[in-house]
User: Fold this.
Amino acid sequence: MTRKSGMGLGSLLLAGAAAFAYYKYSKMSDQQKRDLVNGLKEKGKKFYDEKVPESVKDIFAKKASAADGFTHA
Assistant:
């Protein structure tokens, strides 16, 4: 059996979830949006601190310090 459409059920569900998330975000107050973003930042920093190996952190630190020293003419 062949698919007649290039879009599968998973793609349709993903698009629906994205649309619903956008709708919910658009209805949030400014304070709720700030709280959401701050919560995600905290979780991201915690994940980075706990799960990312030191060798990878060192690579990012070297790139960041090299970018800080770069100046535009």
Notes: DSSP finds three helices and no strands in the chain. The mean pLDDT is 87. Residues 28-73 form one domain. The CA atoms of residues 11 and 17 lie 10 Å apart.
